[in-house]
Amino acid sequence: MTGRELLLNADQFTDLVVDLPTQRAPIFRQLLLPLVVDALGFPADRDEWMDMFRAGSFTAEQRDALGAYMDKHHHLFNLFDPVHPFAQVADLRTAKDETKGSALLVATAATGNNVPLFSARTEGDPLALTPAEAARWMLHTHCWDTAAIKTGAVGDPRVKSGKTTGNPTGPLGQLGVTMPIGTTLYETLLLNIPYGQTRLSDDLPQWRRRTPAGDPLSAATPVWHARAARGLLDAWTWQARRIRLFPEETPDGPRVTRVVVAAGDRLDISPDIEPHTAWIIDPPAKRGTKTSTRPAAKSVRPRRHAAGRAGWRGLDALLAIKAVDEDRSATATRKGAVSSRLLRQLSEVSRLLPHRYPLRIELTGIAYGNQSAVIEDMYVDDIPLPVAALDPEGVVYGSLLEAVGQAESLATAVNHLSGDLRRAGGSEPIPWDKGQRPGDTLLHALGPVVRRLLVGLRQVGDDFEKCEKGLEAWEIKAEQATWRVAETLFTSASPALFTGRRTKKDGKDHVYRLSTAEASFRRSLAAILHRRAAARSARES
Q1: How many whole angstroms separate alpha carbon 92 and alpha carbon 221?
Q2: For the segment 62-85, what is each residue's pLDDT rounded down to a tens digit?
Q3: Are 123 and 110 in contact (CB under 8 A)?
Q4: pLDDT tens-digit profile of 318-370?
Q5: pTM listed for this prediction
Q6: Which residues on neighbouring strands pair with residue 244, listed in sequence order?
Q7: First vs last Cα of the chain: how many Å apart?
Q8: Can you state the percent helix, strand and coil of the chain, rounding each to 5?
Q9: For the chain, which terminus, N or C, has the lower number of CB atoms within 10 Å?
Q10: What gap in Å lies between CA 473 and CA 479, rounded to an integer?
């Protein structure tokens, strides 16, 4: 199947099959989304966007426009074109005409400093990529490549001793990528296209910036720039590296085994343009002098996903739809968060979408180490999100945030129980940044329960009674999971914990023993799971 058929019949496909989940965002951003927008334009407003969503597929006129666009620019999508190879620089070379193995493009392959611990191959083993594989990994490199030193290319005036230094990671490496996913490829495309977007005349995808004489910021030369994006199409197709693929003929067809990867453009990421991440709002720094009358500015930076932390635990940031608008005074004095532009857009249309619509939010990210020159970990998670949760005025919104808060509080209660028992035995609590605390075990166990709640809340809409029943069921399951973890702590307690230990802190006596630890834990559970506590009190009375 060709890419043309895939795009024109996007309503007939549910998703893309990729080599690695972190390839999905680059394929959408570097190819599919900008192609659709460049050919059809942005939806003018919410009504036009909803008309397209309800249609469920491209109209005949839109298919004709997409087809005409691809016919006109077909030569710009040729991976091995001698003049304008797609997303590459023709004749890119080093001073000594050196090339490197194609594994340099593959994030999971052993190459240079980036050597996976249990890799089945070494850097010396050749990696032959099909053209399709090479294209996917090339787009992945533009978005996620590691930082630090890069090969110097002939024609780059900033090369020193055959190298360029100070290179940042690819743009997505600085984000916690948040992508809405629909039931079809068509819906996913639409969910990731903002409406009401004003497009500047020089906001073009990279394939229309291929003529060096026509554009001083052309992506078709070894010269690179540090700048802000001209607009969304420019940001989506950002050429963070200068790349050239070297194909060779084999009995199995053309294969890419050698590449050149050099320094590329450096993006100034802006919340006014970037739609695929939530944002952290830092309070303004305190000024050193009292004479300054200018108000200090808030700092806004992309919110990155924390490796090893389930995506549902960050729902407070994903659902921070109106955090900035409604709490200006608070965000001026403390750290806050605001959701991604696309989720805020979905909030505006949430009441127009079917409340049972199976929306998913895919979260991807990469954790770098050693000056961001190596990949340490990859973050991939998928959250089934009720559409009603995007309405800050709806009951589902508050219910989800309450459930997530309860989960975190339960983990804290279990950690306090563990700390009290350890103190009763004469040792110190497990440090928060060392080892695995029992609260982490509980949060892992609560993951499937939270996902079950997320799916269940799709059915309730604005029905308060059904929402309360869902939260009651959640509290039952959460309480059971919490006691399973707590019981492991109680069963491992030594007999000495019954008598406990007396300590003095801040001039006051403290007694730590098994009975007081359990009593405190039960009080915490009753306060956190208040529906369970109320139901239990009603039965006892």
Answers
A1: 8
A2: 999 999 999 999 999 999 999 999
A3: yes
A4: 898 875 444 444 333 456 889 999 999 999 999 999 989 999 999 999 999 88
A5: 0.89
A6: 260
A7: 68
A8: 45, 15, 40
A9: C
A10: 10
